[in-house]
Design a protein that fits this description.
216 residues; alpha+beta; Umud Fragment, subunit A; 8-stranded antiparallel beta sheet; 4-stranded antiparallel beta sheet; 14 strands; 31% strand
């Protein structure tokens, strides 16, 4: 007696092949996305006004994570490092006080620099800085108790090796290195370079004029 072979419908074979291809494509896309996010480019949203007017609340930015080198987990060093953070760079870094948070500020001084702030004026290695990005909401200088803080008068202090001193562009309203110290370059995630999206509070009016704006 001849055994009958059951034929598999062609539609099922095609569907199985398509499903397998879709799964493989999705897995590859996920792996590439994770790789890019971890080592090349990552998106961040600006939640506060500490970098105004350069960056506004509701700006969505892209950060180049490759330019300062690749950070591998549990390794306190950079690989494939093209450059170190320079004065004037807007950088995203791990907040030294709470590593679960990321901060964004501007590099004001690098390792070996001596920084001093006198009545809001920044000096690097004894020379006044042309502070073109600094915004001051008030001319008032807090230099007497009980209002005296590091906000308007600071240092002189020399930046340690492998560290940077950072400040928000909104100088009078930024919690930065003046208050909690230096940032280790190994904790710098990358350099902010472009605004790709921007919502005005309460996040319903799109700021078309900020689309594609290069961050300086």
């Amino acid at each position: 007696m001849k055994q009958k072979t059951k034929a598999i419908p062609q539609r099922s074979i095609v569907a199985s092949f398509v499903n397998r291809d879709n799964i493989e494509a999705i897995l590859i896309a996920v792996i590439l996305a994770l790789f890019i996010r971890a080592f090349v480019v990552q998106a961040f949203k600006i939640p506060s006004g500490s970098m105004e007017p350069t960056l506004l609340i509701g700006d969505h930015i892209l950060v180049n994570k490759f330019i300062y080198g690749i950070n591998l987990p549990f390794v306190e060093r950079k690989f494939f490092q093209f450059k170190k953070p320079c004065r004037g760079d807007v950088v995203v870094f791990v907040y030294p006080v709470d590593p679960s948070k990321d901060f964004i500020k501007r590099v004001i001084a690098i390792e070996g620099d001596t920084i001093q702030i006198k009545n809001k004026k920044i000096y690097i290695n004894g020379a006044p800085v042309n502070d073109e990005h600094g915004h001051y909401s008030t001319p008032n200088v807090f230099n007497q108790a009980p209002l005296a803080t590091n906000r308007d008068n600071y240092g002189p202090v020399t930046v340690p090796p492998n560290c940077v001193f950072v400040m928000g562009d909104n100088r009078d309203n930024s919690y930065d290195s003046r208050f909690w110290g230096f940032v280790n370059v190994h904790k710098v995630k990358g350099k902010a370079f472009i605004i790709y999206w921007s919502w005005e509070r309460p996040f319903r009016n799109f700021r078309w004029q900020r689309l594609g704006k290069i961050i300086h």
